User: Which sequence fits this backbone?
C-alpha cells in the first residue's frame, strides 16, 4: 500500500468520472486506501461542472463512454481551461482500439487503461504520474 504524507494528509485529490457504479466504488476504495481524496461523478456534464469550478484536482480519471459529455469531450474542454491545462488525465475505458488510443493521446491524456483492468496496475500507473509531477 501507498503511504500517506508524513502529516497524515491526503496524497492528492482525484476526480473519477465513470457511469458504472461498480467501477466508481472500486476506484474510490482503491484510491482512498492509497491515501488519495476522491470525488466521483456519474457523467461528463458533472465532470465539466467540477472542472470548470475552482476545486483543486491533482489527477482525473475519465471513462470515454458516458452520458452527457463523453470523456473525449471532457478531456478536450479540460485542456482548454487555463487552471486545468496541466492536470494529468488517465483514460479508463472499454474502447481499446488503436484509433481510440491515438485520439486520447492527441487530446493530451497522460495514460490510457482498458477495461477490464488490474486495480494494482492502475494504481501503479497513477503513482508513476504522481512521482513524475
Assistant:
Amino acid at each position: 500500500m501507498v503511504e500517506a504524507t508524513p502529516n497524515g494528509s491526503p496524497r492528492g485529490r482525484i476526480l473519477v468520472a465513470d457511469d458504472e457504479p461498480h467501477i466508481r466504488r472500486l476506484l474510490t476504495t482503491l484510491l482512498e486506501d492509497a491515501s488519495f481524496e476522491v470525488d466521483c461523478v456519474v457523467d461528463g456534464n458533472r465532470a465539466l461542472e467540477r472542472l470548470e469550478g475552482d476545486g483543486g484536482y491533482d489527477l482525473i480519471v475519465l471513462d470515454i463512454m458516458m452520458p452527457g459529455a463523453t470523456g473525449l469531450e471532457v478531456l478536450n474542454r479540460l485542456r482548454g481551461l487555463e487552471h486545468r491545462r496541466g492536470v494529468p488525465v488517465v483514460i479508463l475505458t472499454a474502447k481499446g482500439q488503436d484509433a481510440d488510443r491515438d485520439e486520447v493521446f492527441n487530446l493530451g491524456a497522460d495514460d490510457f487503461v482498458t477495461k477490464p483492468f488490474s486495480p494494482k496496475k492502475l494504481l501503479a500507473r497513477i503513482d508513476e504520474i504522481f512521482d513524475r509531477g
